[in-house]
Specification:
Strand content of chain B: under 5%
Structural class of chain A: mainly alpha
Distance between the termini of chain B: 46 Å
Largest interface: A-B, 86 and 85 residues
Number of strands of chain B: 2
Oligomer: heterodimer
Shape of chain A: flat
Helix content of chain B: over 70%
Radius of gyration of chain A: 26 Å
Order of helices and strands of chain B: HHEEHHHHHHHHHHH
Largest sheet of chain B: 2 strands, antiparallel
Shape of chain B: globular
Strand order of the largest sheet of chain A: 1-2
Number of helices of chain B: 13
Distance between the termini of chain A: 60 Å
Protein backbone atom coordinates (compact mmCIF):
# COMPACT_ATOMS: atom_id res chain seq x y z
CA UNK A 1 0.00 0.00 0.00
CA UNK A 2 1.19 3.48 -0.84
CA UNK A 3 2.07 5.23 2.34
CA UNK A 4 1.39 8.76 1.13
CA UNK A 5 -2.11 7.89 0.00
CA UNK A 6 -3.12 6.56 3.37
CA UNK A 7 -1.80 9.67 4.96
CA UNK A 8 -3.86 12.02 2.81
CA UNK A 9 -7.02 10.02 3.30
CA UNK A 10 -6.83 9.96 7.07
CA UNK A 11 -5.77 13.59 7.08
CA UNK A 12 -8.76 14.64 5.09
CA UNK A 13 -11.11 12.65 7.24
CA UNK A 14 -9.74 14.24 10.37
CA UNK A 15 -10.22 17.68 8.89
CA UNK A 16 -13.72 16.78 7.92
CA UNK A 17 -14.50 15.60 11.40
CA UNK A 18 -13.30 18.88 12.83
CA UNK A 19 -15.55 20.82 10.50
CA UNK A 20 -18.46 18.56 11.35
CA UNK A 21 -17.89 19.01 15.04
CA UNK A 22 -17.48 22.76 14.71
CA UNK A 23 -20.70 23.09 12.69
CA UNK A 24 -22.59 21.07 15.26
CA UNK A 25 -21.31 23.21 18.12
CA UNK A 26 -21.93 26.52 16.35
CA UNK A 27 -25.51 25.59 15.51
CA UNK A 28 -26.08 24.50 19.10
CA UNK A 29 -24.76 27.84 20.34
CA UNK A 30 -27.15 29.68 17.99
CA UNK A 31 -30.03 27.67 19.38
CA UNK A 32 -29.10 28.41 22.96
CA UNK A 33 -29.23 32.18 22.32
CA UNK A 34 -33.03 32.09 22.71
CA UNK A 35 -32.71 30.45 26.13
CA UNK A 36 -30.02 32.93 27.18
CA UNK A 37 -32.17 35.84 26.04
CA UNK A 38 -35.26 34.76 27.97
CA UNK A 39 -33.24 33.93 31.08
CA UNK A 40 -31.41 37.26 31.08
CA UNK A 41 -34.54 39.27 30.33
CA UNK A 42 -36.30 37.55 33.24
CA UNK A 43 -33.30 38.06 35.51
CA UNK A 44 -32.94 41.72 34.62
CA UNK A 45 -36.63 42.45 35.01
CA UNK A 46 -36.58 40.89 38.47
CA UNK A 47 -33.30 42.45 39.58
CA UNK A 48 -34.40 45.89 38.39
CA UNK A 49 -38.02 45.62 39.44
CA UNK A 50 -37.72 44.22 42.96
CA UNK A 51 -35.71 46.95 44.80
CA UNK A 52 -38.56 49.47 44.71
CA UNK A 53 -40.85 46.99 46.43
CA UNK A 54 -38.45 46.85 49.37
CA UNK A 55 -37.82 50.55 49.39
CA UNK A 56 -41.40 51.77 49.07
CA UNK A 57 -43.27 48.69 50.21
CA UNK A 58 -45.25 46.13 48.26
CA UNK A 59 -48.57 47.35 49.61
CA UNK A 60 -47.73 51.00 48.93
CA UNK A 61 -46.95 50.25 45.29
CA UNK A 62 -49.46 47.59 44.30
CA UNK A 63 -52.51 48.60 46.32
CA UNK A 64 -52.21 52.34 46.77
CA UNK A 65 -54.08 54.55 44.35
CA UNK A 66 -52.04 57.73 44.61
CA UNK A 67 -49.38 58.26 41.98
CA UNK A 68 -47.33 61.35 42.73
CA UNK A 69 -43.74 60.42 41.96
CA UNK A 70 -42.46 63.97 41.72
CA UNK A 71 -44.21 65.40 44.79
CA UNK A 72 -42.21 66.46 47.83
CA UNK A 73 -43.42 63.35 49.61
CA UNK A 74 -43.69 61.08 46.61
CA UNK A 75 -46.30 58.35 46.44
CA UNK A 76 -45.98 55.45 44.04
CA UNK A 77 -49.34 53.69 44.04
CA UNK A 78 -49.98 51.89 40.75
CA UNK A 79 -53.24 50.18 41.67
CA UNK A 80 -55.26 52.21 39.15
CA UNK A 81 -52.62 51.61 36.49
CA UNK A 82 -52.85 47.84 36.94
CA UNK A 83 -56.65 47.92 36.98
CA UNK A 84 -56.66 50.06 33.84
CA UNK A 85 -54.45 47.58 31.99
CA UNK A 86 -56.63 44.64 33.02
CA UNK A 87 -59.93 46.36 32.38
CA UNK A 88 -58.81 48.00 29.14
CA UNK A 89 -57.46 44.71 27.83
CA UNK A 90 -60.67 42.91 28.77
CA UNK A 91 -62.80 45.50 26.99
CA UNK A 92 -60.61 45.41 23.89
CA UNK A 93 -60.91 41.62 23.78
CA UNK A 94 -64.69 41.74 24.29
CA UNK A 95 -64.90 44.18 21.38
CA UNK A 96 -62.28 42.66 19.09
CA UNK A 97 -62.74 38.92 19.48
CA UNK A 98 -66.35 38.60 18.22
CA UNK A 99 -65.55 40.71 15.17
CA UNK A 100 -62.38 38.70 14.60
CA UNK A 101 -64.04 35.31 14.96
CA UNK A 102 -66.95 36.30 12.71
CA UNK A 103 -64.49 37.58 10.11
CA UNK A 104 -62.64 34.26 10.35
CA UNK A 105 -65.93 32.42 9.78
CA UNK A 106 -66.62 34.56 6.73
CA UNK A 107 -63.11 33.88 5.51
CA UNK A 108 -63.23 30.11 5.85
CA UNK A 109 -66.87 29.16 5.41
CA UNK A 110 -68.82 31.76 3.53
CA UNK A 111 -66.70 33.91 1.26
CA UNK A 112 -66.00 32.82 -2.31
CA UNK A 113 -62.31 32.01 -2.77
CA UNK A 114 -61.55 35.29 -4.52
CA UNK A 115 -63.06 37.50 -1.82
CA UNK A 116 -61.55 35.35 0.93
CA UNK A 117 -58.16 36.03 -0.62
CA UNK A 118 -58.76 39.77 -0.53
CA UNK A 119 -59.82 39.69 3.13
CA UNK A 120 -56.89 37.45 4.03
CA UNK A 121 -54.49 39.96 2.47
CA UNK A 122 -56.27 42.80 4.23
CA UNK A 123 -55.86 41.06 7.57
CA UNK A 124 -52.16 40.43 6.93
CA UNK A 125 -51.58 44.05 5.97
CA UNK A 126 -53.51 45.24 9.00
CA UNK A 127 -51.10 43.21 11.14
CA UNK A 128 -48.14 44.87 9.44
CA UNK A 129 -49.16 48.48 10.02
CA UNK A 130 -46.78 50.06 12.58
CA UNK A 131 -48.39 50.74 15.94
CA UNK A 132 -47.47 54.43 15.83
CA UNK A 133 -49.75 54.83 12.82
CA UNK A 134 -52.65 53.38 14.80
CA UNK A 135 -51.75 55.88 17.49
CA UNK A 136 -51.67 58.74 15.01
CA UNK A 137 -55.07 57.85 13.58
CA UNK A 138 -56.38 57.40 17.09
CA UNK A 139 -55.33 60.83 18.26
CA UNK A 140 -56.26 62.57 15.03
CA UNK A 141 -59.57 60.90 14.14
CA UNK A 142 -60.87 58.94 17.10
CA UNK A 143 -60.22 61.39 19.91
CA UNK A 144 -62.15 64.30 18.36
CA UNK A 145 -65.07 61.89 17.86
CA UNK A 146 -64.79 60.79 21.47
CA UNK A 147 -64.74 64.41 22.53
CA UNK A 148 -68.00 65.09 20.73
CA UNK A 149 -69.51 62.03 22.37
CA UNK A 150 -68.21 63.18 25.72
CA UNK A 151 -69.65 66.65 25.27
CA UNK A 152 -73.03 65.20 24.42
CA UNK A 153 -73.06 62.71 27.27
CA UNK A 154 -71.75 64.91 30.01
CA UNK A 155 -73.26 68.20 28.89
CA UNK A 156 -73.75 70.41 31.90
CA UNK A 157 -71.98 68.03 34.24
CA UNK A 158 -69.89 69.80 36.82
CA UNK A 159 -68.20 66.75 38.27
CA UNK A 160 -66.88 65.24 35.06
CA UNK A 161 -63.31 66.04 34.09
CA UNK A 162 -63.32 66.70 30.38
CA UNK A 163 -60.52 64.87 28.60
CA UNK A 164 -60.63 66.28 25.10
CA UNK A 165 -61.41 62.80 23.84
CA UNK A 166 -58.23 61.03 24.94
CA UNK A 167 -59.77 58.44 27.22
CA UNK A 168 -60.07 54.75 28.05
CA UNK A 169 -62.71 54.14 25.40
CA UNK A 170 -60.52 55.56 22.62
CA UNK A 171 -57.61 53.38 23.74
CA UNK A 172 -59.87 50.32 23.87
CA UNK A 173 -61.06 50.89 20.30
CA UNK A 174 -57.46 51.23 19.07
CA UNK A 175 -56.46 48.05 20.93
CA UNK A 176 -59.47 46.15 19.58
CA UNK A 177 -58.46 47.03 16.02
CA UNK A 178 -54.88 46.03 16.72
CA UNK A 179 -55.75 42.56 18.02
CA UNK A 180 -58.09 41.86 15.09
CA UNK A 181 -55.44 40.32 12.78
CA UNK A 182 -54.19 37.96 15.50
CA UNK A 183 -57.71 36.80 16.32
CA UNK A 184 -58.73 36.39 12.68
CA UNK A 185 -55.62 34.46 11.65
CA UNK A 186 -55.61 31.98 14.51
CA UNK A 187 -59.38 31.40 14.49
CA UNK A 188 -59.32 30.94 10.73
CA UNK A 189 -56.58 28.34 10.82
CA UNK A 190 -58.32 26.39 13.57
CA UNK A 191 -61.60 26.52 11.64
CA UNK A 192 -59.79 25.21 8.57
CA UNK A 193 -58.43 22.32 10.64
CA UNK A 194 -61.92 21.02 11.51
CA UNK A 195 -62.43 17.72 9.63
CA UNK A 196 -64.61 18.07 6.57
CA UNK A 197 -66.59 15.00 7.68
CA UNK A 198 -68.03 16.84 10.68
CA UNK A 199 -69.37 19.55 8.44
CA UNK A 200 -70.72 17.07 5.92
CA UNK A 201 -72.47 15.06 8.63
CA UNK A 202 -74.09 18.14 10.10
CA UNK A 203 -75.32 19.36 6.73
CA UNK A 204 -76.52 15.87 5.83
CA UNK A 205 -78.80 15.62 8.83
CA UNK A 206 -80.47 18.82 7.73
CA UNK A 207 -78.76 21.54 9.74
CA UNK A 208 -78.54 24.88 8.02
CA UNK A 209 -75.17 26.37 7.14
CA UNK A 210 -75.36 28.78 10.07
CA UNK A 211 -76.34 26.00 12.47
CA UNK A 212 -73.43 23.94 11.22
CA UNK A 213 -71.03 26.81 11.73
CA UNK A 214 -72.15 27.76 15.21
CA UNK A 215 -73.14 24.37 16.63
CA UNK A 216 -70.55 22.11 15.00
CA UNK A 217 -67.58 23.97 13.57
CA UNK A 218 -67.05 26.57 16.29
CA UNK A 219 -67.24 24.04 19.16
CA UNK A 220 -64.81 21.82 17.26
CA UNK A 221 -62.44 24.75 16.80
CA UNK A 222 -62.88 25.89 20.38
CA UNK A 223 -59.28 25.46 21.44
CA UNK A 224 -58.05 27.52 18.50
CA UNK A 225 -60.46 30.30 19.32
CA UNK A 226 -59.31 30.22 22.94
CA UNK A 227 -55.67 30.49 21.82
CA UNK A 228 -56.70 33.43 19.69
CA UNK A 229 -58.22 35.12 22.72
CA UNK A 230 -55.18 34.43 24.89
CA UNK A 231 -52.81 35.80 22.25
CA UNK A 232 -55.10 38.78 21.77
CA UNK A 233 -54.95 39.48 25.49
CA UNK A 234 -51.15 39.34 25.30
CA UNK A 235 -51.00 41.76 22.39
CA UNK A 236 -53.46 44.20 23.90
CA UNK A 237 -51.77 44.20 27.26
CA UNK A 238 -48.29 44.72 25.81
CA UNK A 239 -49.12 47.49 23.35
CA UNK A 240 -47.54 50.78 24.27
CA UNK A 241 -46.94 53.34 21.56
CA UNK A 242 -50.36 53.23 19.93
CA UNK A 243 -52.21 54.13 23.11
CA UNK A 244 -49.75 56.42 24.88
CA UNK A 245 -51.37 59.58 23.56
CA UNK A 246 -54.83 58.20 22.89
CA UNK A 247 -55.44 57.13 26.49
CA UNK A 248 -54.93 60.57 27.97
CA UNK A 249 -52.28 59.73 30.50
CA UNK A 250 -53.57 60.62 33.95
CA UNK A 251 -53.68 57.95 36.63
CA UNK A 252 -57.40 57.38 37.16
CA UNK A 253 -60.09 54.82 37.83
CA UNK A 254 -60.69 53.15 34.48
CA UNK A 255 -64.05 54.56 33.43
CA UNK A 256 -64.82 54.82 29.70
CA UNK A 257 -64.63 58.60 29.49
CA UNK A 258 -61.76 59.14 31.84
CA UNK A 259 -58.16 59.91 30.98
CA UNK A 260 -56.24 56.81 32.07
CA UNK A 261 -52.77 55.33 32.21
CA UNK A 262 -51.84 51.75 31.32
CA UNK A 263 -48.85 49.75 32.58
CA UNK A 264 -47.16 50.19 29.22
CA UNK A 265 -47.91 53.86 28.80
CA UNK A 266 -46.71 54.59 32.33
CA UNK A 267 -43.27 53.38 31.29
CA UNK A 268 -43.25 55.23 27.98
CA UNK A 269 -44.48 58.46 29.51
CA UNK A 270 -42.00 58.80 32.36
CA UNK A 271 -38.96 56.62 31.78
CA UNK A 272 -37.16 59.35 29.85
CA UNK A 273 -36.85 61.69 32.82
CA UNK A 274 -37.43 59.49 35.87
CA UNK A 275 -34.63 59.23 38.43
CA UNK A 276 -33.90 57.43 41.67
CA UNK A 277 -36.83 55.70 43.32
CA UNK A 278 -39.20 56.93 40.63
CA UNK A 279 -37.15 55.10 38.01
CA UNK A 280 -37.02 51.97 40.14
CA UNK A 281 -40.79 52.02 40.53
CA UNK A 282 -41.14 52.26 36.74
CA UNK A 283 -39.08 49.08 36.51
CA UNK A 284 -41.48 47.55 39.03
CA UNK A 285 -44.30 48.54 36.67
CA UNK A 286 -42.34 46.73 33.95
CA UNK A 287 -42.01 43.70 36.21
CA UNK A 288 -45.76 43.62 36.87
CA UNK A 289 -46.40 43.79 33.12
CA UNK A 290 -43.79 41.09 32.52
CA UNK A 291 -45.42 38.87 35.16
CA UNK A 292 -48.82 39.20 33.47
CA UNK A 293 -47.31 38.43 30.06
CA UNK A 294 -45.45 35.38 31.36
CA UNK A 295 -48.70 34.18 32.92
CA UNK A 296 -50.36 34.50 29.53
CA UNK A 297 -47.47 32.69 27.83
CA UNK A 298 -47.57 29.80 30.26
CA UNK A 299 -51.35 29.52 29.89
CA UNK A 300 -50.87 29.43 26.15
CA UNK A 301 -48.25 26.68 26.32
CA UNK A 302 -50.48 24.64 28.64
CA UNK A 303 -53.42 25.06 26.27
CA UNK A 304 -51.39 23.92 23.28
CA UNK A 305 -50.00 20.98 25.23
CA UNK A 306 -53.46 19.86 26.32
CA UNK A 307 -54.56 20.10 22.73
CA UNK A 308 -51.61 18.02 21.54
CA UNK A 309 -52.35 15.36 24.15
CA UNK A 310 -55.97 15.22 23.11
CA UNK A 311 -54.74 14.42 19.63
CA UNK B 1 -93.04 18.54 -3.37
CA UNK B 2 -92.21 22.16 -3.50
CA UNK B 3 -92.68 22.66 0.21
CA UNK B 4 -90.45 19.72 0.97
CA UNK B 5 -87.34 21.25 -0.54
CA UNK B 6 -88.24 24.83 0.17
CA UNK B 7 -85.48 26.70 1.87
CA UNK B 8 -86.72 27.64 5.29
CA UNK B 9 -84.91 30.75 6.39
CA UNK B 10 -84.62 31.05 10.13
CA UNK B 11 -84.60 34.51 11.61
CA UNK B 12 -81.60 33.69 13.77
CA UNK B 13 -79.76 32.47 10.69
CA UNK B 14 -80.39 35.74 8.92
CA UNK B 15 -79.23 37.69 11.95
CA UNK B 16 -75.99 35.72 12.22
CA UNK B 17 -75.36 36.02 8.49
CA UNK B 18 -75.80 39.73 8.90
CA UNK B 19 -73.32 39.87 11.75
CA UNK B 20 -70.76 37.82 9.84
CA UNK B 21 -70.99 40.04 6.76
CA UNK B 22 -70.85 43.11 8.96
CA UNK B 23 -67.69 41.94 10.71
CA UNK B 24 -65.89 40.98 7.53
CA UNK B 25 -66.97 44.25 5.97
CA UNK B 26 -65.71 46.16 8.96
CA UNK B 27 -62.30 44.48 8.79
CA UNK B 28 -61.96 45.30 5.12
CA UNK B 29 -63.23 48.85 5.58
CA UNK B 30 -60.78 49.42 8.41
CA UNK B 31 -57.80 48.48 6.28
CA UNK B 32 -58.90 50.40 3.23
CA UNK B 33 -59.92 53.35 5.37
CA UNK B 34 -56.60 53.44 7.20
CA UNK B 35 -54.57 53.16 4.00
CA UNK B 36 -56.56 55.75 2.08
CA UNK B 37 -56.68 58.22 4.95
CA UNK B 38 -52.97 58.08 5.70
CA UNK B 39 -52.13 58.41 2.01
CA UNK B 40 -54.62 61.23 1.58
CA UNK B 41 -53.22 63.17 4.52
CA UNK B 42 -49.61 62.26 3.95
CA UNK B 43 -49.11 62.59 0.23
CA UNK B 44 -49.44 66.36 0.21
CA UNK B 45 -46.73 66.70 2.86
CA UNK B 46 -44.24 64.52 1.07
CA UNK B 47 -41.86 66.41 -1.15
CA UNK B 48 -38.22 66.29 -2.10
CA UNK B 49 -37.23 68.53 0.78
CA UNK B 50 -38.83 66.27 3.37
CA UNK B 51 -37.17 63.17 1.97
CA UNK B 52 -33.71 64.53 1.19
CA UNK B 53 -32.87 66.98 3.96
CA UNK B 54 -32.41 66.97 7.69
CA UNK B 55 -34.63 69.04 9.97
CA UNK B 56 -33.08 72.46 10.41
CA UNK B 57 -34.32 74.84 13.06
CA UNK B 58 -32.16 77.53 11.45
CA UNK B 59 -34.06 77.47 8.19
CA UNK B 60 -37.24 76.18 9.82
CA UNK B 61 -37.47 73.20 7.49
CA UNK B 62 -38.42 69.64 8.29
CA UNK B 63 -36.61 66.70 6.74
CA UNK B 64 -36.41 63.03 7.53
CA UNK B 65 -33.34 61.92 5.59
CA UNK B 66 -31.49 61.29 8.85
CA UNK B 67 -34.29 59.05 10.07
CA UNK B 68 -34.39 57.16 6.78
CA UNK B 69 -30.66 56.48 7.04
CA UNK B 70 -31.01 55.48 10.70
CA UNK B 71 -33.73 53.03 9.73
CA UNK B 72 -31.47 51.52 7.06
CA UNK B 73 -28.59 51.20 9.51
CA UNK B 74 -30.93 49.51 11.96
CA UNK B 75 -32.29 47.05 9.39
CA UNK B 76 -28.92 46.04 8.00
CA UNK B 77 -27.11 45.64 11.31
CA UNK B 78 -29.97 43.79 12.99
CA UNK B 79 -30.33 41.37 10.10
CA UNK B 80 -26.57 40.80 9.93
CA UNK B 81 -26.65 39.63 13.53
CA UNK B 82 -30.04 37.97 13.74
CA UNK B 83 -30.12 36.00 10.48
CA UNK B 84 -27.14 33.70 11.16
CA UNK B 85 -28.28 33.08 14.73
CA UNK B 86 -31.89 32.45 13.77
CA UNK B 87 -31.06 30.21 10.81
CA UNK B 88 -28.42 28.36 12.83
CA UNK B 89 -30.88 27.80 15.62
CA UNK B 90 -33.46 26.41 13.21
CA UNK B 91 -30.87 24.09 11.65
CA UNK B 92 -29.90 22.83 15.07
CA UNK B 93 -33.50 22.20 16.09
CA UNK B 94 -34.42 20.50 12.84
CA UNK B 95 -31.26 18.64 11.84
CA UNK B 96 -29.10 17.96 14.87
CA UNK B 97 -31.09 17.97 18.07
CA UNK B 98 -32.69 14.83 19.41
CA UNK B 99 -36.01 15.34 21.16
CA UNK B 100 -35.37 16.05 24.80
CA UNK B 101 -35.23 18.67 27.48
CA UNK B 102 -32.89 21.00 25.61
CA UNK B 103 -35.07 21.11 22.52
CA UNK B 104 -38.15 21.67 24.65
CA UNK B 105 -36.41 24.51 26.45
CA UNK B 106 -35.31 26.11 23.17
CA UNK B 107 -38.77 25.81 21.66
CA UNK B 108 -40.44 27.15 24.79
CA UNK B 109 -38.10 30.14 25.01
CA UNK B 110 -38.46 30.92 21.31
CA UNK B 111 -42.22 30.87 21.79
CA UNK B 112 -41.88 33.05 24.89
CA UNK B 113 -39.69 35.57 23.06
CA UNK B 114 -42.35 36.07 20.42
CA UNK B 115 -44.90 36.79 23.14
CA UNK B 116 -42.90 39.38 25.07
CA UNK B 117 -44.13 42.92 24.31
CA UNK B 118 -41.68 45.27 22.68
CA UNK B 119 -41.72 47.73 25.57
CA UNK B 120 -40.17 44.99 27.76
CA UNK B 121 -37.48 44.41 25.14
CA UNK B 122 -36.92 48.15 25.24
CA UNK B 123 -36.47 48.17 29.01
CA UNK B 124 -34.15 45.18 28.90
CA UNK B 125 -32.10 46.58 26.03
CA UNK B 126 -31.76 49.93 27.73
CA UNK B 127 -30.47 48.36 30.95
CA UNK B 128 -28.42 45.49 29.57
CA UNK B 129 -26.91 46.78 26.33
CA UNK B 130 -27.17 50.45 27.21
CA UNK B 131 -26.01 50.51 30.82
CA UNK B 132 -24.34 47.19 31.66
CA UNK B 133 -22.43 46.90 28.39
CA UNK B 134 -22.05 50.67 28.21
CA UNK B 135 -23.34 51.14 24.66
CA UNK B 136 -25.67 53.97 25.75
CA UNK B 137 -28.50 54.98 23.43
CA UNK B 138 -27.13 54.06 20.03
CA UNK B 139 -27.77 52.09 16.88
CA UNK B 140 -25.80 49.23 18.42
CA UNK B 141 -28.04 49.08 21.49
CA UNK B 142 -31.14 49.30 19.33
CA UNK B 143 -29.93 46.62 16.94
CA UNK B 144 -28.99 44.18 19.67
CA UNK B 145 -32.39 44.68 21.26
CA UNK B 146 -34.20 44.14 17.96
CA UNK B 147 -32.05 41.08 17.26
CA UNK B 148 -33.54 39.31 20.27
CA UNK B 149 -36.97 40.49 19.24
CA UNK B 150 -36.93 39.21 15.65
CA UNK B 151 -35.03 36.00 16.40
CA UNK B 152 -38.20 33.88 16.79
CA UNK B 153 -39.53 35.16 13.47
CA UNK B 154 -36.45 34.02 11.55
CA UNK B 155 -36.05 30.78 13.49
CA UNK B 156 -39.64 29.76 12.96
CA UNK B 157 -39.77 30.58 9.26
CA UNK B 158 -36.51 28.74 8.62
CA UNK B 159 -37.75 25.76 10.61
CA UNK B 160 -40.97 25.64 8.61
CA UNK B 161 -38.95 25.77 5.41
CA UNK B 162 -36.58 23.02 6.55
CA UNK B 163 -39.55 20.83 7.41
CA UNK B 164 -40.83 21.05 3.85
CA UNK B 165 -37.53 19.78 2.40
CA UNK B 166 -38.22 16.09 1.67
CA UNK B 167 -36.25 13.56 3.70
CA UNK B 168 -35.13 11.89 0.49
CA UNK B 169 -32.90 14.94 -0.21
CA UNK B 170 -31.14 14.37 3.08
CA UNK B 171 -30.70 10.63 2.76
CA UNK B 172 -29.71 11.07 -0.88
CA UNK B 173 -26.92 13.47 -0.04
CA UNK B 174 -25.75 11.55 3.00
CA UNK B 175 -25.92 8.28 1.11
CA UNK B 176 -23.62 9.64 -1.56
CA UNK B 177 -21.06 10.26 1.13
CA UNK B 178 -21.60 13.95 1.85
CA UNK B 179 -20.94 15.00 5.39
CA UNK B 180 -23.78 16.53 7.33
CA UNK B 181 -22.43 20.07 7.10
CA UNK B 182 -21.86 19.66 3.38
CA UNK B 183 -25.41 18.37 3.00
CA UNK B 184 -26.82 21.31 4.95
CA UNK B 185 -24.77 23.84 3.01
CA UNK B 186 -25.35 22.53 -0.48
CA UNK B 187 -28.74 20.82 -0.28
CA UNK B 188 -30.83 21.98 2.66
CA UNK B 189 -30.11 25.70 2.75
CA UNK B 190 -30.73 26.30 -0.96
CA UNK B 191 -34.00 24.36 -0.78
CA UNK B 192 -35.06 26.25 2.32
CA UNK B 193 -34.03 29.64 0.93
CA UNK B 194 -37.55 30.94 0.14
CA UNK B 195 -38.62 30.28 3.72
CA UNK B 196 -35.53 31.97 5.10
CA UNK B 197 -36.10 34.95 2.79
CA UNK B 198 -39.72 35.22 3.89
CA UNK B 199 -38.55 35.29 7.50
CA UNK B 200 -36.00 38.00 6.74
CA UNK B 201 -38.50 40.14 4.87
CA UNK B 202 -41.06 39.85 7.66
CA UNK B 203 -38.29 40.76 10.09
CA UNK B 204 -37.56 43.90 8.06
CA UNK B 205 -41.23 44.77 8.39
CA UNK B 206 -41.04 44.46 12.15
CA UNK B 207 -37.85 46.51 12.37
CA UNK B 208 -39.33 49.28 10.25
CA UNK B 209 -42.52 49.36 12.29
CA UNK B 210 -40.97 49.00 15.72
CA UNK B 211 -41.09 51.91 18.12
CA UNK B 212 -41.49 50.93 21.77
CA UNK B 213 -38.33 48.81 21.80
CA UNK B 214 -36.30 51.61 20.21
CA UNK B 215 -37.43 54.67 22.13
CA UNK B 216 -35.05 54.06 25.04
CA UNK B 217 -32.41 52.03 23.21
CA UNK B 218 -31.67 53.79 19.93
CA UNK B 219 -32.83 57.26 20.96
CA UNK B 220 -34.13 59.98 18.70
CA UNK B 221 -31.11 61.59 16.99
CA UNK B 222 -31.72 63.01 13.53
CA UNK B 223 -28.19 63.79 12.37
CA UNK B 224 -26.67 62.34 9.22
CA UNK B 225 -23.53 60.23 9.55
CA UNK B 226 -20.36 62.31 9.10
CA UNK B 227 -18.44 61.93 5.89
CA UNK B 228 -15.77 59.28 5.55
CA UNK B 229 -15.23 55.84 6.96
CA UNK B 230 -14.86 57.08 10.51
CA UNK B 231 -18.16 58.90 10.35
CA UNK B 232 -19.81 55.79 8.94
CA UNK B 233 -18.68 53.73 11.89
CA UNK B 234 -19.16 56.41 14.51
CA UNK B 235 -22.83 56.47 13.54
CA UNK B 236 -23.27 53.09 15.23
CA UNK B 237 -22.59 54.65 18.62
CA UNK B 238 -24.77 57.73 18.17
CA UNK B 239 -28.34 58.26 19.29
CA UNK B 240 -30.43 57.64 16.18
CA UNK B 241 -34.18 57.76 15.79
CA UNK B 242 -35.84 55.62 13.14
CA UNK B 243 -38.83 56.77 11.08
CA UNK B 244 -41.34 55.43 13.59
CA UNK B 245 -39.67 57.23 16.48
CA UNK B 246 -39.65 60.47 14.49
CA UNK B 247 -43.35 59.99 13.72
CA UNK B 248 -44.04 59.47 17.41
CA UNK B 249 -42.10 62.59 18.40
CA UNK B 250 -43.79 64.73 15.76
CA UNK B 251 -47.17 63.44 16.89
CA UNK B 252 -46.34 64.13 20.54
CA UNK B 253 -45.55 67.72 19.58
CA UNK B 254 -48.85 68.03 17.76
CA UNK B 255 -47.21 68.27 14.31
CA UNK B 256 -49.75 66.00 12.69
CA UNK B 257 -49.01 66.99 9.08
CA UNK B 258 -45.40 65.85 9.24
CA UNK B 259 -46.50 62.78 11.21
CA UNK B 260 -48.88 61.80 8.42
CA UNK B 261 -46.12 62.37 5.88
CA UNK B 262 -43.83 59.96 7.72
CA UNK B 263 -46.77 57.59 8.21
CA UNK B 264 -47.28 57.60 4.46
CA UNK B 265 -43.62 56.72 3.85
CA UNK B 266 -43.83 53.96 6.46
CA UNK B 267 -46.99 52.50 4.96
CA UNK B 268 -45.46 52.38 1.49
CA UNK B 269 -42.45 50.49 2.88
CA UNK B 270 -44.58 48.12 4.94
CA UNK B 271 -46.98 47.40 2.08
CA UNK B 272 -44.10 46.74 -0.27
CA UNK B 273 -42.46 44.40 2.25
CA UNK B 274 -45.65 42.46 2.94
CA UNK B 275 -46.50 41.99 -0.69
CA UNK B 276 -42.94 40.89 -1.48
CA UNK B 277 -43.04 38.35 1.34
CA UNK B 278 -46.38 37.05 0.10
CA UNK B 279 -45.07 36.84 -3.44
CA UNK B 280 -41.96 34.90 -2.45
CA UNK B 281 -43.91 32.59 -0.17
CA UNK B 282 -46.44 31.91 -2.94
CA UNK B 283 -43.90 31.51 -5.73
CA UNK B 284 -41.80 28.96 -3.92
CA UNK B 285 -44.48 27.15 -2.01
CA UNK B 286 -43.57 23.48 -2.48
CA UNK B 287 -47.04 22.29 -1.59
CA UNK B 288 -48.70 24.52 -4.14
CA UNK B 289 -46.47 23.41 -6.98
CA UNK B 290 -47.45 19.78 -6.62
Amino acid sequence: MNKIDTFTITGKKKNRNYIEEAAHIIFAICAVVAILAVVSITAYMIVKGIPAFFKVGIKEILFSTVWEPTAKEPQYGIFFVIITSLFGTALAVVLGVPIGVLTAIFLTEIAPKRIAGVIQTAVELLAGIPSVIYGLLGIYLLCPLMYKLEMALFAGSTTHQFTGGANLLAAVVVLAVMILPTVVNISASSLRAVPESLKAASLAVGASRIQTIFKVLLPAAKSGVISAIVLGVGRAMGEAMAITLVSGGSVNIPLPFQSVRFLTTAIVAEMAYAEGTHRQVLFSVGLVLFAFIMLINVTMTKLLKREAEKG
Amino acid sequence: MNTLIRHKRRKSDMLLYGLIYLSAGLTLTLLIGILLYVFYKGIRVINLELLTTVTSSLRGTVGILGNIINTLYMIVLTLLIATPIGVGSAIYLNEYAKPGKLVKAIEFTTETLSGIPSIIFGLFGMVFFGNTLGLKTSILTGSFTLTIMILPLITRNTQEALKTVPDSYRSGALGMGATRWHMIRTVLLPSAMPGILTGIILAIGRIVGESAALLFTAGSGRALPKAGLEGFFRKFTESSGTLTIELYLQMTNGKYEVAFGIGCVLLVIVLFINLTAKWIAGKFDVRKQK
